[in-house]
Write a structure and sequence with these properties.
Blueprint lengths: L9 H15 L1 E6 L3 H17 L2 E6 L2 H10 L4 E7 L1 H5 L1 H5 L3 E18 H5 L18 E3 L7 H9 L9 E3 L3 H13 L6 E5 L3 H4 L2 E3 L4 H4 L1 H4 E9 L2 H4 L1 H9 L4 H12 L5 H11 L2 H6 L11 H9 L3
Parallel strand pairs: 1-2, 5-6
Antiparallel strand pairs: 3-9, 4-7, 4-8, 4-9
């Protein structure tokens, strides 16, 4: 068969697609152990699996996530909270190790918080921390190592008038929230890292501290969340990248899904599929111009595989 210059024959096109499909079949996502990422990652996993891909999640600390994106060991991360991570991990963006592909959430926040009774008693700002150091046992409760850098830097620099006696307690989201719950049960004083979306905003009477602009940005740590991928991924795997470009959530959706996991005790997969079935219209936008692994229309395939009407 003779093929005109510049025109790919069907066999060549199929071989090129097959090569790309094989290289992109495994989609490796980072999981930080955060409930919001458990929901969004698992939602992505369900959709990717229905499209014929083989997604997987690996539990990593935040700093290891960025290192793994740089080394090519992880493909996708849905938890790039801005502006905090853009400051802390600026070199990775500057050298092109990570590529933003979408803002997947707006209206988020991320800063220090206290139970309402502590706020009402006078701890309303970062600048009030030192005044109540003894009542707080000189401790600030954070989450997993790698995610508390603004707090560690704040304590090291003795910002906001802090003396040298403060400790940032690093553990995990679940362990931190358990500590907060124990404190609330006895009206003990505690200051911790809080954020939205998260069921803590619904299940707990809490307040965010003012004055943390230098550490977390203005508007009580007002934030957006981006999806980032490793260098070269958009060119190598354009179909998967298109899905992640489309995969945009909202505060109400994430709060509802996370509440199913944390309050109702559902597994992340069960919560994700329940949210998808309750909001089938989201798939129309998420799967626009997205195909299955073997090149068929993605929306119909996903709805059929997941039994979504």
């Amino acid at each position: 068969m003779i093929v005109a210059a510049g025109v790919a024959c069907p066999m060549q096109a199929h071989m090129a697609f097959a090569d790309e499909a094989e290289a992109c079949k495994a989609v490796r996502l980072s999981d930080l152990g955060w409930t919001d990422i458990a929901l969004t990652n698992t939602t992505a996993e369900l959709i990717l699996g229905a499209l014929g891909y083989e997604p997987s999640q690996t539990l990593l600390a935040l700093n290891i996530t960025f290192d793994s994106l740089r080394s090519g060991d992880i493909d996708v991360f849905l938890g790039n909270w801005r502006p905090v991570q853009d400051i802390d991990y600026k070199p990775y963006f500057d050298d092109g190790s990570v590529i933003p592909v979408a803002t997947n959430l707006t209206g988020a926040k991320y800063t220090l918080a206290v139970p309402r009774y502590v706020h009402d008693a006078g701890l309303k700002s970062f600048d009030d921390l030192q005044r109540f150091a003894d009542r707080l046992d000189h401790k600030i409760y954070g989450i997993e190592p790698g995610s508390n850098k603004p707090l560690l830097d704040m304590v090291e620099k003795k910002a906001h008038g802090l003396d040298g006696t403060w400790e940032v307690v690093e553990s995990s989201e679940a362990a931190m929230l358990a500590q907060v719950q124990r404190a609330v049960e006895t009206n003990a004083w505690i200051v911790f890292l809080g954020w939205q979306p998260h069921p803590m905003n619904v299940t707990m009477d809490m307040a965010y501290l003012a004055g943390g602009d230098a550490e977390f940005g203005p508007d009580f740590g007002g934030a957006t969340v981006r999806t980032i991928v490793r260098k070269g991924y958009p060119e190598q795997c354009p179909n998967v990248t298109k899905l992640f470009n489309n995969l945009v959530f909202d505060i109400d959706y994430e709060n509802a899904g996370m509440n199913m996991i944390m309050t109702d005790g559902l597994e992340a997969g069960d919560a994700a599929i329940k949210m998808l079935k309750a909001n089938p219209q989201k798939l129309d936008a998420w799967l626009k111009d997205v195909q299955t692994l073997d090149g068929k229309p993605g929306l119909a395939a996903v709805k059929a595989e997941l039994d979504i009407q």
